[in-house]
Amino acid sequence: MSARPTALVTGASRGVGAAIARALAPTHDLLLGGRDTEALAGMIPGLPGARPWPVELTAVTEADVAGIDRLDVLVHSAGVVTLGRVEETPAEVWRRTMEINVIAVAELTRLLLPALRAARGHVVLINSGAGQRANPNWISYSASKHALRAFADGLRLEEPGLQVTTVYPGRVATDMQREVRASEGGPYQPENYLDPDSVARVALTALTASSDAHITEITVRPAAGPPN
Fold it and tell me: Which residue of 42, 66, 98, 112 has the fewest CB atoms within a 10 Å radius of its CB?
């Protein structure tokens, strides 16, 4: 790694994570986190100073973060959603959703705290409108995102040397959104959703704020289409 600041982005192989990685590439060396090693490798040629960080986030260990002694930015973008009413949602869905959306975030952050403290770094959590309210059929996902909000709020208080920002986007034109719309039985209309690059620019706003400003939360919604 060079003398440039370093950022680790999870979920970097597609969607919002990939967009954030592209936005950071001109100024940061990048660790691209994800499970799809082929997709991560495909991103490297367009991102100078980037290298893949293939990992299963639900099984990350100290060995996975060995050698990361200083980390300026940690972006948590990976996540999953399974729609369904409470009566249709078995325990394994709740466990998987919480494991990926909350517990993996907490554990990776815990392991990287020494590196973040060394850099007085910035943690960005890509949440969701579901982290601000709960809607029918979205309850397991919403519960995980409310927990993620609580994690961010608590981390901000426990680690005053760090900056912690939660971004609450509405619907974003990603593969996940395509799957959600199929589950909802509706059309996938990307023109009605946020572009991933728009969410990346919002995250970059928090990351590039002046030194006297700590942007703790940002809510961004599509200009057209559904509000959530």
Answer: 66
The closest of 47, 105, 107, 73 to 206, measured between CA atoms, is 73
- pLDDT per residue as tens digits for the range 13-40: 999 999 999 999 999 999 999 998 999 9
DSSP H helices, 13-169, are 15-24, 37-43, 62-65, 91-98, 104-119, 139-158
The string of pLDDT tens digits covering residues 118-157 is: 999 999 999 999 999 999 999 999 999 999 999 999 999 9
- Three-state secondary structure readout of 135-193: CCCCHHHHHHHHHHHHHHHHHHHHCCCCEEEEEEECCECCHHHHHHHHHHCCCCCHHHC
Pair of tokens at residue 60: 């990350």
